[in-house]
């Protein structure tokens, strides 16, 4: 694999490279995330408790979020192609461990490795798009990248249920290995790109460790607080530890400036800050899919496959609207679609929260609401991603992309944890009420995304 700078080559991004990038993204968003809809099947086939299995579901997103920024810095320093290929190799290893697992050790390890794989792939592939594609070609490439990300997440529930029903859940990860091999072959040989200034910087190890500690402790507080007791010594210890670790991380980062794991100077750009924060909030609303799945299966007695079928409207609209979002971006700028998308998604979630409806009316409502949910997310996705990538300076594009994808991963991880905690908190009032209140929380996340975009993005049309 050759190592060149942008100034030393006339290479232009090809459809072959773009296909490899999309397949790379799918290894996480389509295959790794399919576990969400096959929990009962997995529990019945291996020796693992439901509590441990639930933890395993969130591990990939959590570890992806913890390490994605560091991986973005490594991509800038050692090469974006190299980090992508390393991520694909990790994906194969993680998937293989899940295929052969018979108990919690290999299963948990495989999920952690899948999260590390995603942490390598997400920022590195976005940086490759920024480097090798220009103008409308870049916006097209970003659209397809977003299709792999958002479209994959929309299809994962259906794919997981279909493969588990027809072939067995382990085949999900056999297909993931095949996709990783294909992506590796398509990307291998692409000219390398890296940041000349990033090579001079050392890894901020203390920043990485403090960030991981803060996020893991806070996740434990959210996930276990209801079981431990929110005011118990253990819960308060987790929360205090998270606050102390995050305080150290922020102060250390402000002092180290560009040498820090996260260069906080990036957030001086209001458009970039808006993209990251609204992205975090809107990804948190993915908790809607988990609560809807639980309510449909336990409250309305649908099977996992039938539940997956309910998300097909989401899949179709999110895929269609991603390219529409690209056109809206080109014509109106980012502000309009980044406000309108969350508003449409919020409408869909609110309709899903009408758990008092009779079964057939509710099923029709959920299907239609998933269409709206996908419509909103698809409208938002490309303008938000393009804003984050194009607002970042060239020498920090890997780190900036990593922070943006950290928002996606951590938004999803903490959104799922908070939604599950609220559901458990209100469960004594009845399953229908608990689902309704948890879904209202997801509506508030969408409202927050609208407010951030309205207040921080410029009104003028972006070039």
Structure report:
It is built from 17 helices and no strands. The N terminus is likely disordered. 78% of the residues lie in helices and 0% in strands. The protein is mainly alpha-helical.
Helix fraction, binned, reads over 70%
Question: Which sheet architecture does the biggest sheet show?
Answer: none
Average pLDDT across residues? 84
Number of beta-strand segments: 0
Strand content: under 5%
Number of H/I helices = 17
The SSE order reads HHHHHHHHHHHHHHHHH
**Structural class category:** mainly alpha
Q: How big is the Rg? A: 21 Å
Low-confidence stretches: 1-8
Distance between the termini: 35 Å
- Give the overall silhouette: globular
Q: What is shown here, in short?
A:
By secondary structure, this protein is mainly α. The protein is built from 17 helices and no strands.
Which features characterize this protein?
463 residues, mainly alpha, 78% helix, globular
Indicate the topology.
Blueprint: H1 15-31, H2 39-45, H3 50-78, H4 80-100, H5 104-132, H6 135-166, H7 170-187, H8 205-228, H9 233-256, H10 270-284, H11 287-299, H12 304-309, H13 312-332, H14 335-352, H15 359-390, H16 397-426, H17 431-456
